[in-house]
Amino acid sequence: MLQRVDLMTTPRILFFADSGPTIGGGHVMRCLTLARALLAQGAECAFAAPPAAMRLLETFAPDAIERRPLPDGTPSRLAAPIADLAQTWGAQAAVVDHYGFGPGEEALVRTGVHRLLALDDLKRGHLCDLVLDSNLDRTAADYPGVESLTGPAYALVRPEFAALRPQTLARRANAEPRRLLVALGLTDVGGITARVVQALAPSLGDLQVDIVLGQGAPSLAALAPLASRDQRLTLHVDTSEMAALTAAADIAIGAGGSSVWERCCLGLPTLTLVLADNQRDAAGRLADLGGAAVLEADEADFAQRLVDGVSSLRADPRCLAEMSAAAGDLCDGLGAGRAAQRLLAIL
């Protein structure tokens, strides 16, 4: 249980991140990455979590990160309780990752802490001390009046990805496509994972497929019996081995959210699926730079274009090598440490 602290010798940072069946788990996971980086630099971290976020934290949060439940509620109703919790715990700073938190909600949270960091990727207005937006081509001009950490240099990638980067990038220069990673978010919005696997199954040939899902993913009901019959398919439910799976893969089908930077860090050629409107511009820019191919999940001919896209990548080793190199150049996987260092510096 979180307890009131009157005299602090260690920086304390309270996190609040959105999650759910439609928003997915990416906000929680990138906050966990930043929290781990802060822990490594001597801070203490805790999460204020509504039920959906709490379920993710119970699965993926290290024991060193405390958790305090919050009820479901609108941003305007949760801002004040977050501020109260921050004061009770003695937090010096808060980190908020929620598209519904605007300047009004941020002002309320700031009543409980000395500093506030907002994670964003939509160029919204903020009333905070620091904004982190890792999107390509973001600059300080996108966030006037507030200090910002922008671009993939600040992408919140878990340290195990950077640890595998040198040997993985070297392997990709001459790799043959033998393993496919399908990772479209733990919450599997709209059952997209089953749609993808079922569309690809007839054309897989000898390709081995690793499929990543959360325990509550709607696609599990369809994919579990399919994987039991097809030895090419392996399900990974609530896995803690994403870095190893990403390193082992030769091609990926991935969502256009924050996991993009994990794949770029390890130079994994990817067919990126746009699953939400806010992913479209960033995914398109990534494709412009050669770091991925892009496909809209709601297109009428989605299944055929998916099959064609994967077949094209498998048939063109030169394209795979060039895409890998372009992706690897975009993100070194060290952004979480940089962001943690700057947040602690302003406390």
Give the helices and strands, then pairings:
Blueprint: E1 12-17, H1 26-40, E2 44-49, H2 51-60, E3 66-69, H3 75-89, E4 93-97, H4 103-110, E5 115-119, E6 130-133, E7 147-150, H5 159-172, E8 179-183, H6 192-200, E9 208-213, H7 220-229, E10 233-237, H8 242-248, E11 251-255, H9 260-265, E12 270-274, H10 280-288, E13 293-296, H11 302-314, H12 317-330, H13 335-346
Parallel strand pairs: 1-2, 1-4, 2-3, 4-5, 5-6, 6-7, 8-9, 8-11, 9-10, 11-12, 12-13
Can you walk through the features of this model?
- By secondary structure, the chain is α/β, with parallel strands linked by helices.
- The protein is 41% helix and 18% strand.
- It has 13 helices and 13 strands.
- The protein has a seven-stranded parallel β-sheet with strand order 3-2-1-4-5-6-7, with helices on both faces.
- The chain is globular and about 60 Å long.
- Residues 1-7 have low confidence and may be disordered.
Supply the key terms:
alpha/beta, 41% helix, 347 residues, disordered N terminus, six-stranded parallel β-sheet, single chain
Order of the strands making up the biggest sheet: 3-2-1-4-5-6-7
Rg is 20 Å
Low-confidence stretches: 1-7
**Shape by Cα distribution:** globular
Which quaternary structure do these chains form? single chain
Secondary-structure element series:
EHEHEHEHEEEHEHEHEHEHEHEHHH
β-strand number: 13
Biggest sheet architecture: 7 strands, parallel
Structural class: alpha/beta
Mean pLDDT across residues: 94
Helix content: 40-55%
What fraction of the residues are assigned to beta strands by DSSP? 15-25%
Number of DSSP helical runs: 13
